[in-house]
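All the exercises in this workshop are built on plain-text protein records. A record pairs a protein's sequence with a compact description of its fold. Read left to right, the backbone structure tokens trace the chain's path through space. Once this layout is familiar, the rest of the handout is easier to follow. Here is such a record, shown just as it appears in the course material:
>
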Amino acid sequence: MTTSTIDTWMAARRTANSFEGVTELDTSLDGSKLRIGLLLSRFNRDIGDGLLAACVETLLKQGVKRENLLLVTVPGALEIPLAARRMAQNGTFDALVAMGAVIRGDTYHFEIVANEMASGIMRVQLDTGIPIANAVLTTETDDQAYTRMAHKGAEAALCAIEMANLMGKS
């Protein structure tokens, strides 16, 4: 996402969510004081690398310092929640970004991996209070994943920053 795209998105959100007489917390996409943990599944690595590149580029554009990023790779999507729990519990990070791709095959395995991974990420987030932006793509085909990876990586970076800043205000 370009800066103008981000500004347009945030302005549209403010307009759509501004209700007269209702106090609304301002959202912030300033990442300059944040520490972000990145989790990457090595399965479907080309897609993961595309997600990671877009995510890191966006984090840096939003002011997150390169030295405040840590990348942890895991074998597959099912291992992300356990690594996320450890990272969330150690007190180092303001937010995490989980990245990878689960692509449907000919068996029921896709549903198990996609559902359990998403459930695990949500459980860690709720149990620890550390926001986790879920950028693990679940697609029918490789082509769908390649098409979505850059946008989803950037979107997850913005989500992590916004939620980390929001949690810091509560």
User: Anything to note?
Assistant: Strands lie at 36-41, 69-74, 95-103, 132-139. The helical segments are 3-17, 45-61, 80-89, 109-128, 142-169. The mean pLDDT is 92.
